[in-house]
């Protein structure tokens, strides 16, 4: 069409969502405009607010609109257990699949020097501090078993040296090279229960 | 989690999009927050604006932010041809698949008395006026070949009586009971070229 217009702008903007191609972006735009404008208005409002207000928890670095996330702030969680994950989405997967009641630390990725991701990008100083300040008895590494994930786990084992923290790693069942968040819940629960000492 | 929070609100709001389940809504939220906040801000802004500003073209009733849509306003389109479709998305499909250069009329659905969709809901008075005011020589019905679609086509043939408009219907290739917008472009182009006199 000659004039792109607001409708086409909406279709184009929807394509920033992962897994949304031109066809489904168009379907989404038409659906909202023809059948659910209130939902579209609500989504636009929540999305704008989330982009501004959601930051990182200062203790575990998961996404949170508060300085301290709900999990870190909860007195019901066992603060002697610390599960180290790559992404906030891994926390959601673990919470849904297991009965883990400890706390978390979110790396935000894996060590990958070629991509410019070093210890600083993963906030490993903050993790080192957490492991050495006392209170944590076990750190469970729930990191994808890729080459970079293994290097990251190895590095964390190094920074834990001299602390009383026992480092374990979730084990059996996570497919090699697999992304943690794509693993089914049963497999993940099994891997969690079968974690081994590093 | 105890406190739903803004992140969970965003995940829930994303589920208003068609085809988006809990898993993909979560993936979308994390993607925007971790990797593309600018795109998220832009999408939120465009979506809010689209929900407020996009209405219906007063002539063809497609979605448009202007009183007269770009197609109706274009002097390059052949105003003697009028293609009657169910939804605005059908226009997009026809524009992409065929070399049709006429104008459109969007019904917004099919006659379905049991669902409370009668001639008024489909703005058939506006279509009647259009057919009788002169200027249109052929009206091409590009309506899904379902029971309700056939009833709608029959009704339109009726309101065209006494006008000089020749009513045709797109034919071969559109699968029976199929939704027009799901048909591949080649089939649609074929059906368009092979339209028959009603
Ligand atoms: Zn936290
Ligand atoms: Zn129009």
Cα distance, first to last residue of chain A?
A: 61 Å
Low-pLDDT residue spans of chain A: none
Based on the structure, what is the oligomeric state of the protein chains?
Answer: homodimer
Mass-distribution shape of chain A? elongated
Most extensive chain interface and residues per partner: A-B, 54 and 54 residues
Do you know the CATH topology of the largest domain in chain A? Answer: Dna Topoisomerase Vi A Subunit, Chain: A, domain 2
Please write out the topology:
The structure is a homodimer.
Chain A: H1 5-14, H2 22-35, H3 37-53, E1 55-56, E2 63-64, H4 70-73, E3 78-85, H5 88-97, E4 102-106, H6 124-132, E5 138-142, H7 147-160, E6 166-169, H8 185-193, E7 196-197
Parallel strand pairs in A: 3-4, 3-5, 5-6
Antiparallel strand pairs in A: 1-2, 6-7
Helix pairs in contact in A: 1-2, 2-3, 5-8
The structure holds zinc ion (ZN) (2 copies).
